[in-house]
């Protein structure tokens, strides 16, 4: 009997790590690091008109998987107040209406042993080993992403960083065992140091924050990181899965980006978590102002309930703390051309401010 | 927050402070409650004026463009009050029904109000989380914030609650015989904002249809499958509809409503099973009444046709 397949929602480069984590279940992971136009189209056609882009795109992935004969899928379970809570139920219905048999497991908030684990029932040993390996991959990807943000802003030849990144991701995907991953990790600095850089360029520092699906999916966000890198901007994407996991599992929450610290920081502006990453958006914007960032880009699917509801607050912070905030909403009609023009204008403003400040 | 308020010997506030209530979201979710309560405490209460075309235009101008219509309207009502009063009451609504949660946008409302209001105006807020704290307790907190005596708070609470009960129990008009019977559902701030729903309800009646508005007095809904409070009440009502008694359902949704984008699929599913026709009308800033009228006429005609067809077949 062939191994059953399990579809995992797209999480950018982190999809690799997630894929590694399910190997212990003796399933073949089905995933993409990025969405394709075809997948988006499938999702848009199947989804309610006014659902958000994140819903449409994950729906598209599950439909595509089902079309390729994948039997299972896994999707985060949310207990929060936002629409995410209903995604899995709704997607299961949409799949069924279309005659597909893909069953979606929920992950998280189901107790120690989520149904997914119970169903495939791996040995404890296997399970722990896989978790450990996946976690190591996640941290390694955090490290790669961080290196790419810095280099891309100062690279001499456009595209060098992206090429290096792609090669690294490929190698990381090949690394199967813990020693292999560790050995790969050691090579990262050297590989990025090979990229020739313009030492005189002083890049702007800009934060990307907001809703995670869009932040992580370079197809949906129109390659935001690369566009900005090309404009000489060093970005910090505030969605790093390693950090996120520490928050979810409450490890190291005492840290600067930990949940508790964020709540405290945001308190004068926002007295409730709202849902999604809305509280984090407020806290990070405040933090960026303190840390001397040149600007903030707030990313959300158009109409995102939690993120859009804090936009008036972000505007207030922008005024109070004198930090430019660029609001960027994405839907299936977002065009890259329009986005690039707007980003260029924003970056111009940031450069002006920076030069004036330095005078 | 603001200076101590002087009290008269009867415990009511001696120098009544002016407090505003935006005629939006919170006003319709708890009809009659806040007005009565604050007045009973001895405050001088101003409710922003009922919505007009101008309110909608103003909302479109000043509010975040991706907000849903009701939150935009809230912003317009807030702006209207800003010049008129010292305090504005904006509760942080986290849940209006035990076991349920409110739309996440309502939780950020007081913070947004603070971010948007010009200086000199104080936003007074308390958490409303009927999932954890009884409404009366939240009201008592509000009373204490405003420096009122416990006995006054107690009495004000009683009166306010009975005002709420009266307002929520919308009497159902007797059904005209031989007319179609429609249930109209939608968030309370869509259904009871007469500028938004008035023309639609009039049109429905002019087509010779008995229209009943969904009631939010009924608090027995279970939080499955819908966890959002008002949506759950509507979903529950739909599940209990007896098909032979209803000819159609009209859903007044609002543009960019995140909750409706999910739950309308569930409403439709329930109604499909019961074979009750359903039509969704989306309220937005630019909707013209003419388009709505045509759609309503077509909907009513198609139902009448079906009935005639069924009658001739039998
Ligand atoms: S339930 Fe819908 S209409 Fe009401 S506040 Fe939330 S998003 Fe807006």
Give the proportion of residues in helices of chain B: 40-55%
Radius of gyration of chain B, in angstroms, nearest whole number: 21 Å
| Series of secondary-structure elements of chain A, N-terminal to C-terminal | EHEHHEHEHHHHEHHEHHHEHHEH
Ligand inventory reads:
iron/sulfur cluster
Looking across the biggest beta sheet of chain A, what order are the strands in?
A: 2-1-3-4
Helix content of chain A: 40-55%
Most strands sheet of chain B: 4 strands, parallel
CATH class of the largest domain in chain A: Alpha Beta
Biggest interface reads:
A-B, 36 and 34 residues
Briefly, what CATH class of the largest domain in chain B?
A: Alpha Beta
Q: Could you please say which CATH topology of the largest domain in chain A applies here?
A: Rossmann fold
What's the number of structural domains of chain B?
2
**Largest sheet: number of strands, sense, barrel closure of chain A:** 4 strands, parallel
Q: In whole angstroms, how far apart are the ends of chain A?
A: 71 Å
CATH hierarchy: architecture of the largest domain in chain B: 3-Layer(aba) Sandwich
């Amino acid at each position: 009997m062939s191994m059953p397949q399990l579809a995992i929602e797209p999480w950018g480069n982190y999809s690799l790590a997630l894929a590694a984590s399910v190997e212990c279940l003796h399933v073949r992971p089905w995933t993409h690091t990025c969405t394709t136009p075809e997948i988006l189209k499938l999702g848009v056609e199947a989804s309610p008109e006014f659902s958000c882009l994140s819903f449409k795109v994950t729906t598209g992935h599950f439909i595509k998987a089902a079309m390729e004969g994948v039997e299972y899928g896994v999707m985060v379970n949310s207990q929060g107040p936002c629409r995410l809570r209903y995604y899995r139920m709704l997607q299961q219905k949409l799949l069924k209406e279309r005659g597909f048999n893909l069953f979606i497991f929920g992950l998280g908030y189901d107790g120690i042993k989520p149904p997914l684990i119970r169903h495939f029932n791996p040995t404890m040993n296997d399970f722990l080993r896989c978790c450990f390996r996946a976690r190591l991959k996640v941290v390694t990807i955090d490290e790669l992403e961080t290196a790419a943000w810095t280099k891309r802003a100062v690279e001499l030849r456009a595209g060098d960083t992206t090429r290096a990144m792609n090669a690294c991701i490929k190698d990381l995907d090949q690394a199967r065992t813990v020693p292999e991953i560790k050995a790969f990790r050691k090579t990262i600095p050297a590989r990025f140091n090979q990229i020739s850089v313009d030492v005189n360029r002083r890049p702007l520092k800009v934060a990307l924050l907001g809703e995670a699906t869009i932040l992580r999916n370079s197809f949906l966000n129109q390659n935001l990181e690369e566009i900005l890198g090309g404009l000489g901007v060093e970005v910090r994407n505030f969605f790093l899965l390693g950090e996120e996991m520490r928050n979810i599992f409450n490890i190291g929450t005492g840290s600067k980006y930990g949940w508790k610290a964020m709540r405290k920081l945001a308190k004068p502006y926002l007295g409730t978590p709202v849902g999604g990453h809305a509280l984090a958006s407020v806290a990070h914007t405040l933090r960026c102002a303190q840390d001397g960032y040149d600007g903030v880009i707030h990313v959300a699917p158009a109409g995102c309930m939690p993120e859009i509801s804090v936009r008036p607050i972000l505007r207030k912070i922008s005024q109070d703390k004198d930090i430019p905030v660029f609001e960027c909403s994405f839907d299936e009609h977002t065009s890259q051309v329009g986005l690039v023009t707007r980003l260029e204008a924003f970056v111009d403003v940031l450069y002006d401010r920076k030069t004036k400040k330095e005078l | 927050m603001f200076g101590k308020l002087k009290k008269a010997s009867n415990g009511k506030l001696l120098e009544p402070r002016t407090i505003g209530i935006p005629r939006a979201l919170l006003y319709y979710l708890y009809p009659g409650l806040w007005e009565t309560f604050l007045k009973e405490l001895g405050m001088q209460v101003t409710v922003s004026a009922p919505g007009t075309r101008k309110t909608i235009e103003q909302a479109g101008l000043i509010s975040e463009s991706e907000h849903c219509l009701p939150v935009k309207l809230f912003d317009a009502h807030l702006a209207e009050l800003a010049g008129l009063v010292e305090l504005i009451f904006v509760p942080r609504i986290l849940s209006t029904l035990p076991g349920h949660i409110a739309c996440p946008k309502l939780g950020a409302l007081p913070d947004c109000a603070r971010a948007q209001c010009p200086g000199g105006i104080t936003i007074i807020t308390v958490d409303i989380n009927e999932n954890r704290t009884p409404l009366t307790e939240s009201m008592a907190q509000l009373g204490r914030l405003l420096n009122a005596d416990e006995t006054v708070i107690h009495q004000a609470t009683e009166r306010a609650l009975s005002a709420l009960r009266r307002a929520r129990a919308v009497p159902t008009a007797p059904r005209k015989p031989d007319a179609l019977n429609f249930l109209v559902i939608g968030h309370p701030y869509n259904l009871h904002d007469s500028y938004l729903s008035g023309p639609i309800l009039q049109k429905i009646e002019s087509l010779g249809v008995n229209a009943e508005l969904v009631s939010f007095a009924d608090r027995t809904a279970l939080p499955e499958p819908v966890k959002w409070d008002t949506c759950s009440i509507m979903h529950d009502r739909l599940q209990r509809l007896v098909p032979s008694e209803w000819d159609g359902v009209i859903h007044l949704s609002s543009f960019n409503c995140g909750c409706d984008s999910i739950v309308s699929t569930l409403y439709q599913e329930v109604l499909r099973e019961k074979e009750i026709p359903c039509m969704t009308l989306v309220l937005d800033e630019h909707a013209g009444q003419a388009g709505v009228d045509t759609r309503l006429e077509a909907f009513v005609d198609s139902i009448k046709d079906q009935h005639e067809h069924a009658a001739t077949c039998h």
